[in-house]
Amino acid sequence: MSESDGPKRRKKKSEDPQAEPVQQGEIPGNAPPVEKTPVSNPWHSPAEESAQRRSARMDDVLRQRAMRARSPFRMGSSGMWGLAAIGVVSAWLISTSLHVLPANHSGIVTTLGRYSGQLAPGMNLTLPWPLQQVSTRETGREQVLMLPDKEAETLMLTRDGELIDVRSLVRWKITDLKSFTFAVPDGEAALRRLSDSAIRAGVAEFTFDELRGGRRQAELQQRVIGRLQRVLDAWKAGIAVSGVELTAANPPARLAETFKKIDKANEDARKNHEAAVAYAARIRYSAETEANAFDKAYQLYRIAPGVTRERIYYETIERVLRNNQVVIGNAGTGVSLPPPPGEKPAEKGGQ
Amino acid sequence: MSTALSQFRPGIFALVIAVLLGTSAISVVTETEQAVIERMGQPDRVINRFRPGEGSGAGLVAKIPLIETLTVLPRGLITFSLPAKRVKTGDQHWLLADTDVTYRIIDPVKLTTTLGSAAKTEDQLKALLPSLLDKEIGQRSAVAVAQPGAGGANQVMRQALDAEVRQYGLQVIDLRIARVALDEASLNSAYERMVQRHEATLAEIEVRSANDALAVTSAAEAEATARRKRSADQDPEFYSFYRAMRSYDELYGDPKRKNTVTIVLPPDSGYLEHFGGK
Fold first, then answer.
1. Are A115 and B33 spatial neighbours (Cβ–Cβ below 8 Å)?
2. What are phi and psi of B84, to 5 degrees?
């Protein structure tokens, strides 16, 4: 609405003083009047004028009007008037009927307040203000709403009566610019309010542990999207919500110490569990290898019991005797032994 | 030129009057507005009234200058927020509840004849809401209030409020307790409860962890034993012999632990049976 009458008014202001006939000698050409604006004000130097453009202009306009009423003869040639009029009219036409929309944007056209169509990206022509007005908005792209909008602890009540600090974001898109513009004033603010309450309501349906551990966050997000979309549809808000994410679900800052301890205990528990599992695997593995070795020996034993048994016996005893000192003698025989390598001379060994 | 202008003066004056009358005879009602036209103070017709499924009536509106007046009202949804109302829940917590009421003017004539303007509707809502909140929240626990529909509280309050404001031509589309915050005392007790519970959780985690490790290892041991038993059961006598041999080998047969013991072998031992060369 204001988009189209804004520029127009501005233009008008800059044209008015120029309409005064100071430079009589100037040729009434077709040059765009906007370019001549700086030199044509008869009451102020250009420096002063540019310094205080707005307020000076207002004063000027009033003063000029007063003067005009008193002495209409000083008005100058009708050629200048014509030029000024053409300038005003063309500025008005160009600024209010030509609309260039960037990609992903759409425009709503109202004719005397009534909706009469939409504009697509590119160049568009409409009737000039005040007959038609255009308001444009980016519609093609997904937009993201952050909750809360600035970093702050946002405590919500969980189902088990605890508090959790939740940050979230909502992805949304305008699906129907007409509804978005007319059905709900400030649709984005409405979306923010609804999202916030839907997320709070969702959080209140889960326990603190479920949310903090992230175990049921996906479920919560789905519920929130569903409910939010239902309300938006009922309101004909022209908005589609494509995603709701809890970006963080933390314990309150006041309980940080306790939760640091819990996190550490959980971490320790995880490590203990891993260690136990590794140990269990080792036990199983050694039982398996032992039993397999026995099974193999037993197969041979079944084929030839005597031979196998003797082979095992002698092979073992040979290894034992080969790797140790052996004394052949009866019990009670006094034996003197050389000391084992790297040790002090031993006392009497054996018996 | 001066004479020409002087001649036109009455004409210009007439033109100005005509323009003034003309502009007051024509108004623009936009898509987001609806308007009531009153003739000598009596409602005469409604422009662009909201009716579901009906087309727009926005645009130029003609009225009789001076005799008819136009009151413009919003046509879309209007949201009114009542922030931080202190209410006591059924479980004796004090909450600060923010309530959002979304409504629409469905009967503009009723609104202009009762309240006069759209701005006054907020005063009505502000007056009606608190007692409604006290009543409904007073029956529910703090957590139930925070939940969607709050066990139907939102719905009940919406209906009650809707019934109250219909006389002003308003329809309540949505009423929700948008957020609840615990007041200082309830907040502190909630923190305390949380600390207690989570400290208990801490102890629980440690105990559970120890039990878990034990369960894992003993399960593995049972399995290992069962596996050995399966082998041994094939021939217990041979197993016993084999196991003994493995044990001797393990302890005394390892070349890495050479000469750690001295073995006294009696000449009459089984091993030396043939030593004598009989």
1. no
2. 45, 55
Distance CA B117, CA B124 (A): 12
Tell me if the pTM is above 0.80. no
The CATH class given to the A143-251 domain equals alpha beta
Asked if A328 and B5 come within 8 Å (Cβ–Cβ), the reply is: no
Q: How far is A11 from chain B (nearest CA, A)?
A: 23
Q: How many residues does chain B have?
A: 278
Instruction: Select from A113, A203, A312 the Cβ nearest to the Cβ of B31.
Output: A113
B234-244 per-position pLDDT tens digit: 989 999 999 99
Please give the ipTM for the structure prediction: 0.71
Query: What are the DSSP E strand ranges found in chain A?
Result: 98-101, 105-111, 114-119, 122-125, 132-138, 143-147, 155-157, 163-174, 239-250, 325-328
Verify whether the Cβ–Cβ distance B220 to A279 is below 8 Å.
Answer: yes
pLDDT grade, residue A119 (50/70/90)?
confident
- List all residues 6 or more positions away from B121 whose beta carbon is below 8 Å from its beta carbon: B78, B80, B103, B105, B111, B115, B165, B168, B170
Q: Which residues contact A142 (CB under 8 A, 6 or more apart)?
A: A171, A172, A173, A242
B78-117 confidence digits (pLDDT tens)? 999 998 888 888 888 888 889 999 999 999 998 888 888 8
Comparing CB atoms, the residue among A155, A276, A341 nearest residue B216 is A276
The answer to whether A159 touches A205, Cβ cutoff 8 Å, is yes
| Distances, alpha carbon A116 to alpha carbons A3, A104, B49, B57, in Å | 17, 20, 18, 12
H or E segment to which residue B43 belongs: strand B42-47
| Domain locations along chain A | 95-138, 143-251, 254-309
